[in-house]
Specification:
The structure is a single chain. This protein is mainly α and 494 residues long. Helix content is 76%, strand content 0%. Helix 1 runs antiparallel to helix 8 and helix 5 packs across helix 8. The relative contact order is 0.09.
Amino acid sequence: SGQPAGVAQSRVGLLWALAAAVAALGSALLFDALPGVNWLLWTAAASGGLLVFARRRGAAPAPAMLLSGAAVVIAGAAAVTASPGLWVLICLSVVVLLAIAMLLTARPSLQSITPRFAATAPLFAFYHAARQTMRRAADATQLMQSSRARAWVRGLAITLPVLLVFALLLAGADPLFASWRDSLGRLIDSWEFAPRVVFFAMLLVIVLGAYGYALAGSAGALSAETDAPQRWLGSTERLMLLGSVAALFWLFLAVQLGYLFGNLPQVAESGVTFAEYARRGFGELSVVASASALLIVVSERYGQSGGRERLLRLLTFASLAAVLLLLASAFRRVWLYESAYGFTTSRLYAQVYMCAVVVGMILLAVEVAGAFDAARVFRRASAAAVMLFIALIYWNHEAWIASRNIDRFASTGQLDVDYLTKQLSSDAIPTIAVRLPSLPDTLHAHIRQSITEQFAKREQRRPRAWFEWNMSDARSRRALQAPVVASGATATPE
């Protein structure tokens, strides 16, 4: 592309060297390793390399930096929490964010992020990365045919065997060299190196392709969605749809006002238990609220107004208000269920989801009041969801759940010990250990033994390496070694 041959070759050399280094780092830190600080280190290295090549092209990829930074922050939570479920969500979030960041290096604009763009980003990123890897491999093959490259290959072919022979000879004269030789021999005998090499090759394909894509720039970038949407939903149909939905929601609220916001299980002869009250309606109300948001987006994006803007907007706001009330009812149902039966992660996640939907509905209402842009609503709602997710994974909510359930025991005398000790992850162990003295002696001893056994089972595979350090694991280990836990000492509550 008009660049001097030396500059182009230096970029190719840097591309391969940095990609190989990041892939090797991933192979060393991630393969068969527990989640910990290693996720943060590798995500930061991979993101840094991506931005290096985007900047070498002369771009200032602020959107890519923003998405990469969010991925690094989320990956860091792997060293904070010990919850396997959150590890899965963290991994998926990092993959999606890095895929979007890679694609944005070719088209550095947040306006490019639309629902379709975000949903297909991982597939398109992998596709473009694979194409770039094949292209770079073909370029490397051509470079290998030069006289200088052939000299390097011959030099390696001569040097490596000589170094190997000398190293084996020196191993007989030095214990450190001997230990390295023995470790290498055990690795080869056990064939453990084979899957690690495959893992390295897979990472190299992805990293090399991503870096090559960032260096290539706009070539192969996804086309922007700039065409105006076809408005196939007429104004009459919109009036009928929105009016009917709004009327149905408000009729539902009016007929069951006491049921929704009251406490029906306390009504004599209602025949409804707390479990039925919370479970029977929560799921339906949450689905209706989420589907209503999608319905309003479709109506605004693909609907015609026909001179009825004010009436359509009024019906839309009526539907939004009803949905917010339905979400408030669903939230209250879960809250009552927690008050009656205790706190769990699934119930807390349901409440967090409802909070996210409420934020989305408010953003949607703001957009409906102005010039509606579905992509802008999606970007703002996604940003809010990412911030809410970051707050959740860094907040030790399992410790909070354990503390609240122990608080309930003081007033109700009921405590789900099995859930407390077996269903919660190591995140809750330090808090449980601190609260043990407030429990009766028999319950204290049972919980102490159970959490010790569960922690031992989780950590029995092998000691953690330095790059597998996890704050929750370290705090749990210290808590279990504390005198009040290790000795079984109790303090009689007042």
